[in-house]
Amino acid sequence: MQDSNKKASIMLLILILFMATSCSKHKEPVKIPSRESLIPDDAVKMTPENDKLPPKLLSDEYEDPVALPYPVNTRGLEDSAFIMPDGNIIYVWFTPDNKMDVIKQSQDKVTGIYKFEKNEEGWSNAERVWLVEPGEPHLDGCGFFQENMVWICAARQGYEGIYWFTSEFVDQEWTTAQFADFDPEFEIGELHISKNKKELYFHSKRPGGKGGLDIWMLKKVNGKWQSPENLDKVNSEYDEGWPALNYKEDELWITKNYGLWRSKKSDGEWQAPEQIISNLAGEATIDRQGNVYFTHHYYENDKMIESDIYVSYKKKY
């Protein structure tokens, strides 16, 4: 989508959210459809057998990538996964139709973030993560989960554009997401926060980078985020984005050139990244065992068909 069209769509979305929220005080309870009921009848379920550009492993440290089974992956689009450290809970963004624009996504009542728990049979059925009143128009994505908190990039009533919001898990449910007051001059894109909450990695096209998206880092000092630092050795004239730390926080994974790359920390500094997985692989998320979960998009004739969540398991020696 061209930038002008995208901006127009976001502005229209904000207007719709404002109108819908203003008129919703006395509405009857909203009926929420099942997520799969809105997948088009002609949607194709891609598999490794009919994938013309399967993800390709470029390292002997991992097993070959495999798609997660149903119900995590469907004929719809699964994207932006986040695996919890123990590997037993995964959060996945879902939308039923890749042809749907952001306006329809905000109103279809099924586009959003879902939770799956690992069990003896594989993975549990999808559980919706509601960060607004169920059924309210909204657009949530970029979920980063840490302990009992989640950070999301979202469109909300009263905010002109896409901003970061946070929610806390209290009494077995998520609270309504609240505005995260990052300095707007930081221009924070998708992010990852260290376990001690003192470092924040993000991608951005902010001035001072090497070109396109770059990876930046914020340090928290006395409770305040300091000015962004460009990770010089990690970045290039190409796009580097979607940062993710491993559990030990000595690896920084990024998406670059339609593949997954890994930078290692040496003597306290991040080094030049090396490619680990190629062919339409992105948005890594890593569990405590070092297993790498990511999004794979299926394309045919330069047209996206759907996307699934994959995993490449760390070999045990």
Structure, described:
The protein is mostly beta strands and 317 residues long. The protein has a domain at 3-25 and 42-187 and 275-312. 8% of the residues lie in helices and 41% in strands. The strands form 5 sheets. Strands 1, 18, 19, 20, 21 and 22 form a 6-stranded antiparallel β-sheet that branches. Strands 3, 4, 5, 6 and 7 form a 5-stranded antiparallel β-sheet that branches. Strand 18 (241-245) and strand 19 form a beta hairpin.
Chart the SSEs and their pairings.
Elements: H1 3-22, E1 56-57, E2 66-67, E3 77-83, E4 89-95, H2 102-107, E5 112-119, E6 122-123, E7 127-128, E8 139-146, E9 149-155, E10 163-170, E11 173-174, E12 178-179, E13 191-193, E14 199-204, E15 214-221, E16 224-225, E17 229-230, E18 241-245, E19 251-256, E20 259-266, E21 269-270, E22 274-278, E23 281-286, E24 292-300, E25 303-312
Antiparallel strand pairs: 1-22, 2-25, 3-4, 4-5, 5-6, 5-7, 8-9, 9-10, 10-11, 10-12, 13-14, 14-15, 15-16, 15-17, 18-19, 19-20, 20-21, 20-22, 23-24, 24-25
- Classify the helix fraction into a percent range: under 10%
Helix-strand string? HEEEEHEEEEEEEEEEEEEEEEEEEEE
Put simply, the count of helices is 2
| Terminal Cα span | 46 Å
What spatial form do the alpha-carbon principal axes imply?
A: globular
Secondary-structure-derived class? mainly beta
Major beta sheet, specifics?
A: 6 strands, antiparallel
Strand elements, count: 25
C-alpha-based Rg, rounded: 19 Å
Strand percentage, roughly?
A: 35-45%
What is the mean pLDDT? Answer: 92
